[in-house]
Amino acid sequence: MKRQISMEMVVVMTLLIAITTCMLVYASNTNDHNLHAQTAALDNKTLFVTGSATTQTKPDKVTVSLGVETTNAKAKTALATNSELMNKIINALKIAGVSENETSTSSFTITPNRDYTIDKNQGKLVGFTVSNSIQIDSYNVNDSSEWIDISVSSGANNVNNIYFSVSDKKLEGIKNELLKEAIGNAREKADIAASALGLKIVGIKTVNIDQATPFFTGPTLYAAESSKIDGGSAPTPIIAGEQQISMSVSIIFLLG
Predict the structure, then answer these.
(1) Are 235 and 149 spatial neighbours (Cβ–Cβ below 8 Å)?
(2) Interstrand relation of 201-215 and 103-115 (parallel, antiparallel or unpaired)
(3) Same domain, 160 and 209
């Protein structure tokens, strides 16, 4: 009888130990889970903020596209006349200070002209039009008006485009300064928001930088035919204006 009671006691004790062990393991796992949950909650305290900065700057580079268009019944004659006028324009620009490395041919075409009132199917060949255009790329922004006047006086009858821009070197310096301002703007916003929430900025999770975007509406097409330079006429007014350059950043701050 005593032996039987002892065996029953052993079984009961074993079960109690097993149950106690399971409870301790469960409690430990629960505490670990709660700790991880609390840590994750802290890690999830983030604040997304955008910052921006803008400035105005004067262009330091100009691109001018101009040329000559001539027409004649014979292609050879149209080409000869065109070449003579273009050489005259190029020489006049050289005298005005435009260097050879600032000029390049942008387009050259010889186009047949057909009269479809005479031949409705294929058109009767009545002549040829030769078009030759050059492009001037220079940092002498203030001279663009003079170049146009000289070119038109020398025979140019097409001024296709005038475009002012900011050079890569100048733009790089402006971008660096705007980036500092944009980040400062984002940090200022983040500090205000964190303070209102009773928190503090404790770190940065990610930073995304948007490229600087120059914005400028340049002069429209210039009608050379209606602005031929006569003796004593005023210089053609060409104004470079200013370009707006913006930079923005997106930052995710860590809060604590």
Answers:
(1) yes
(2) unpaired
(3) no
Distance, CA of 183 to CA of 52 (rounded, Å): 7
- Whole-angstrom Cα distance, residue 219 to residue 203? 47
Encoding tokens for residue 79? 């080409």
Quote the CA–CA distance of 106 and 254 in Å, as a whole number.
54
The answer to whether 45 and 197 have CB atoms below 8 angstroms apart is no
Q: What six digits make up the tokens of 37?
A: 């949950």
| pLDDT band of 153, cuts 50, 70, 90 | very high
> What's the full length of the chain, in residues?
256
> Rounded distance, CA 192 to CA 213, Å?
28
For 131-142, what is each residue's pLDDT tens digit? Answer: 999 999 999 999
Task: Answer yes or no: is pLDDT of 111 > 80.
Answer: yes
pLDDT value at position 252? 97
Which neighbouring-strand residues pair with 210?
A: 248
CB distance 112 to 125 below 8 Å: yes
Do 114 and 187 belong to one domain? no
Q: Do 158 and 74 share a structural domain?
A: yes
The pLDDT value given to residue 118? 82
